[in-house]
Amino acid sequence: MLNKFSDYIYYMPNQDENDRPTLGLVSGEQYSLIVDCGNSTQHAKDFLNEIKKLNVPPIKYVVITHAHWDHFLGMNEFDATIIVNSQTNKLLNVWQSYKFDDSSLQTYKQSKLMGDKCIEIIQTEIPNRNQFKLNAPHIIFEKTLTLDLGNKLCVLEKINSTHSDDATIIYVPDEKVIFLGDCVYGTTKNSLFHYKKSLLLPMIEDVQKYNAEAFLLGHESICDMEEMTTFWRDLRAASKAVNSSSLEDALESFNLENNRTPNDDELFFIKAFVNDYIIQSL
Ligand SMILES: [Zn+2]
């Protein structure tokens, strides 16, 4: 089942149990556009089967929000123009050289090019994977690109992100909806989950310049304005409190500034910003 946001926007909610991110569908009068292609052939097929039940114009474009496997491995199922920013394209170029048979997967596992979950999904949800080869994107843009689906514009922009260096957002002005992919999340390096402090404020600015009222996130589905405002507030407060790799100092600074101890979300973010300092000192 797809969730309906409006007559023009649907989405398939994330399914955490099998690492499936949120997938989006935006339709205009002439064409439809897909946001992210799923973590596998099966995920993409499931999405396409649901779209078939709707009476929407043909899919002309597919936008990949960033080059993490769970957002693009279903790409080959779409008979459409695949669009990515130039940084995502560079990362996808590497994946186009990969093979997906067991012995190749084993090599990638050992060299840490692919994680366990990625390999498990490939093995179970990409049939004929011994012959599988990832397609190349068709349109590469640098900073922004605006598409017209027929009286329905979609604005694509590569923005600053705490999650990856290649984040594309898709904003639909008519609907005041923004697809954020994973851009507002943190990331993991050397087994440490961290939030890149230097990119937090530039990212918030990049997102807030759009007049969005609904926010679709890669692993959360949909957030309204109030939820996003709380999310930004918690992140900002946590970031402000952290100025070194000391968790103790950060907690003290948070208490001084806010006259209270952090809530669970704030504490989670504080630890992630502390980890950012730890990673930089490695
Ligand atoms: Zn990601």
Automatic annotation (TrEMBL):
GO terms for molecular function: hydrolase activity. Residues 20-219 form the Metallo-beta-lactamase domain. Keywords: Hydrolase. It comes from the Bacteria. It holds the Pfam family Lactamase_B. This is Zn-dependent hydrolase, including glyoxylase. It comes from Solibacillus silvestris (strain StLB046) (Bacillus silvestris).
